[in-house]
């Protein structure tokens, strides 16, 4: 698939590298293609290119939003036409505020897009090394049921994480809370950034 990654931080660079290895094509949509962050992401995702946001969206079937949380409403409004109708993965977080995700901003800008909440509840270190003490980490996600969900499921599995769908976006708070729990354990309880979640049974 053609995937646009908006933002070139650790999450974008790590996922881009994994997806290229799995056979997907990656373009990073960035403001500065020569910034240290962008160049680092390109080193991680060998074979990817860095272009403008508009160019990346024109290329993409799937869009990973991994920019800072506060930039998304303006970004989505400015690129509404190119976002609409696509598969969008919201990986942004606002743990300091009452709403952690960007579902509202993305839905308002792109009402015909299929929006999923994913890649927000674990550190990039887990995406880089998803086998922890011999066990595959799980990642909980939500979004619309149907063919696009199976595509998202496969994209999650392609990075080595076990995908667990918790339901449609009326269950988004569950996924947000997994992210809040991860942040609490790392930054308040001193756990390693490499820790993940594992569901037993089911």
Comma- or semicolon-separated keywords:
18% strand, 202 residues, single chain, alpha/beta
CATH topology, which one?
A: Rossmann fold
Protein structure class? alpha/beta
Largest sheet properties: 6 strands, parallel
CATH superfamily: NAD(P)-binding Rossmann-like Domain
Strand order of the largest sheet: 3-2-1-4-5-6
Rg (CA only): 16 Å
User: What CATH architecture do you see?
Assistant: 3-Layer(aba) Sandwich
The global form is globular
Bin the helical content: 25-40%
What is the CA–CA distance across the termini? 30 Å
Enumerate the spans where pLDDT stays under 50 for 5 or more consecutive residues: none
> How many runs of DSSP E, i.e. beta strands?
10
Just give the CATH class. Answer: Alpha Beta
Q: What proportion strand? A: 15-25%
**Helix count from the secondary structure assignment:** 9
Mean pLDDT: 96
Q: List the domain count as a whole number.
A: 1
What is the H/E order? EHEHEHEHHEHEHEEEHEH
Please provide a written account of the structure.
The chain is built from 9 helices and 10 strands. The chain has 202 residues and is α/β, with parallel strands linked by helices. The chain has one domain (2-187): Rossmann fold (3-Layer(aba) Sandwich). Helix 6 links the parallel strand 5 (87-90) and strand 6. Helix 4 (72-78) runs parallel beside helix 6 (103-109). The longest helix is centred in the last third of the chain and has 16 residues, at 172-187. It is globular, with a radius of gyration of 16 Å. The two termini are 30 Å apart.
């Amino acid at each position: 698939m053609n995937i646009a990654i908006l933002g070139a931080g650790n999450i974008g660079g790590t996922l881009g590298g994994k997806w290229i290895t799995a056979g997907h094509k990656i373009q990073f949509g960035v403001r500065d293609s020569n910034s240290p962050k962008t160049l680092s992401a390109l080193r991680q995702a060998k074979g990817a290119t860095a272009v403008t946001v508009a160019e990346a969206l024109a290329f993409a079937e799937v869009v990973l939003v991994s920019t800072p949380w506060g930039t998304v409403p303006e970004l989505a409004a400015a690129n509404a036409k190119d976002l609409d109708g696509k598969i969008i993965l919201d990986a942004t977080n606002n743990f300091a505020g009452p709403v952690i995700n960007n579902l509202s901003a993305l839905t308002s800008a792109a009402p015909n897009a299929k929006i999923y909440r994913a890649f927000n509840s674990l550190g990039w270190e887990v995406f880089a090394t998803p086998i922890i003490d011999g066990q595959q980490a799980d990642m909980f996600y939500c979004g619309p049921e149907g063919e696009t969900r199976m595509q998202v499921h496969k994209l999650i599995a392609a990075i080595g994480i076990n995908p667990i769908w918790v339901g449609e976006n009326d269950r988004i708070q569950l996924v947000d809370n997994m992210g809040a729990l991860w942040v609490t354990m790392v930054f308040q309880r001193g756990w390693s950034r490499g820790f993940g979640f594992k569901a037993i049974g089911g």
